[in-house]
């Protein structure tokens, strides 16, 4: 089941030329269309403009899909690419703002993103459409062709893939990190995103489903010093300066 935003959101057009698109997004997402000069002071704004969709607070803090990563290819193998390894398809089961999926796609990997918050999925969809249309450059357009987006609960999606004997090579999980005191306080953008989507209380169940769906491995992104997800010990880990990728072998399937 798709998850609704945890806070109030209104849709606002940046200009008169954007009103039609804003009206369409409001109807599609079941949100209120507000005048640019009179949105609710305690609501997040989904801004619709020439440069795409953005979430903005009344204080001006803004969050967008990580579309800038679509046109950025790093030389060699970075830690995420090493954790995933060669893969025909990766399912990013906690897509969020798309940073990991867009980064992998820019490096040549085919990725299916699954996002259960429709408003967040709208940011991803808008970024993909703009990239596929060439607005973000030729490299971003090529990367976007390697991306697919599904809106819904990743547990149900992965269970369907497993039942259809159509397993992805790798399942990537990056659940919302828990806040643990001042040292873990997120930046303004992540604080806004956390306010929107809430916590991920069902990560243990998601990990279990992922282990039954992946053909080659499950990769879980964690803070460097965090315990293993749901207390399940990985078979190996790759460590960076602030982030750790825990690697899990999938469960063996019956004949």
Which CATH architecture of the largest domain is right?
3-Layer(aba) Sandwich
Radius of gyration: 18 Å
CATH class bucket of the largest domain: Alpha Beta
Number of beta strands = 12
- Strand content of the residues, in percent? 15-25%
Taken from the alpha-carbon principal axes, the silhouette is globular
Spatial strand arrangement across the major sheet: 8-7-6-9-10-12-11
The helix content, as a percent range, equals 25-40%
Sheet/helix structural class: alpha/beta
Q: Major sheet, described briefly?
A: 7 strands, mixed
List low-pLDDT spans.
Answer: 181-186
- What is the fold named in CATH at topology level of the largest domain? Rossmann fold
**Overall number of domains:** 2
With helices defined by DSSP (H or I, 4 residues minimum), what is the helix count? 8
**Chain oligomer state:** single chain
End-to-end CA span:
31 Å
Whole-number average pLDDT? 88
Order of helices and strands: EHEEEEHEHEHHEHEHHEEE
CATH level-4 homologous superfamily of the largest domain: Vaccinia Virus protein VP39
Give a brief rundown of this model:
The chain is of the alpha/beta class and 255 residues long.
Structure characterization notes:
The chain is 31% helix and 22% strand. Helix 4 crosses helix 5 and helix 6 runs parallel beside helix 8. It folds into two domains: 55 residues, S-adenosyl-L-methionine-dependent methyltransferases, CATH 3.40.1630; 182 residues, Rossmann fold, CATH 3.40.50. The chain contains eight helices and twelve strands. The protein is globular, with a radius of gyration of 18 Å. The protein has a seven-stranded mixed beta sheet, with helices on both faces. Strands 2-1-3-4-5 form a five-stranded mixed beta sheet. With 255 residues, it is α/β, with parallel strands linked by helices. A hairpin with a 5-residue loop joins strand 4 and strand 5. It starts with 8 loop residues before the first strand and ends in a 7-residue tail after the last strand.
């Amino acid at each position: 089941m798709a998850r609704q935003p945890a806070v109030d959101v209104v849709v606002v057009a940046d200009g008169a030329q954007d009103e039609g698109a804003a009206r369409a997004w409001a109807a599609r997402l079941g949100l209120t269309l507000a005048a640019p000069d009179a949105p609710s002071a305690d609501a997040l704004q989904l801004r619709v403009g020439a440069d795409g969709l953005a979430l903005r607070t009344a204080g001006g803090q803004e969050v967008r899909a990580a579309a800038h990563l679509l046109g950025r290819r790093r030389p060699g193998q970075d830690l995420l690419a090493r954790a995933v390894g060669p893969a025909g398809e990766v399912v990013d089961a906690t897509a969020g703002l798309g940073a990991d999926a867009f980064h992998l796609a820019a490096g040549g990997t085919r990725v299916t993103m699954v996002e259960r918050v429709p408003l967040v999925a709208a940011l991803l969809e808008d970024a993909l459409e703009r990239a596929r249309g060439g607005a973000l450059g030729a490299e971003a357009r090529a990367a976007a062709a390697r991306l697919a987006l599904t809106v819904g609960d990743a547990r149900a999606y992965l269970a369907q893939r497993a039942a259809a004997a159509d397993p992805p090579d790798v399942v990537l999980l990056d659940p919302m990190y828990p806040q643990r005191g001042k040292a873990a306080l997120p930046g303004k953008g992540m604080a806004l995103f956390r306010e929107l989507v809430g916590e991920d209380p069902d990560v243990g169940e998601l990990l279990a489903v992922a282990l039954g769906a992946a053909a080659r491995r499950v990769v879980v992104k964690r803070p460097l010093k965090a315990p293993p997800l749901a207390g399940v010990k990985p078979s190996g880990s790759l460590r960076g300066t602030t982030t750790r990728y825990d690697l899990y072998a999938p469960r063996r399937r019956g004949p």
